[in-house]
Amino acid sequence: MLTHRTNVLLTEEDNQLLTLLATRYNTTKGDIIRRAFKTTYPLQKKTKTLAQFLRQGWKLLKKPHQPLNYKALIAYGRH
Predict the structure, then answer these.
(1) pTM attached to this predicted model
(2) With CB atoms 3.0 to 4.6 Å apart as the test, which of 2, 14, 16, 52 could cross-link to 10 if both were Cys?
């Protein structure tokens, strides 16, 4: 279910390309953007593991059993 709306400013050329792609694939511009986003930024297994650590509490972040992947932590925080 789609629950959030985001506005994006595009150049005239980008908008024309997006319109062309949506027409070619018989879908919406939003669907083209969502597919591109999921293809470009796939959810990695490491991020899921980090989410599990965060659910267990901050104690694991202070004294982790394994080294933390700080890039994954930053990426998780951006969601």
Answers:
(1) 0.53
(2) 14
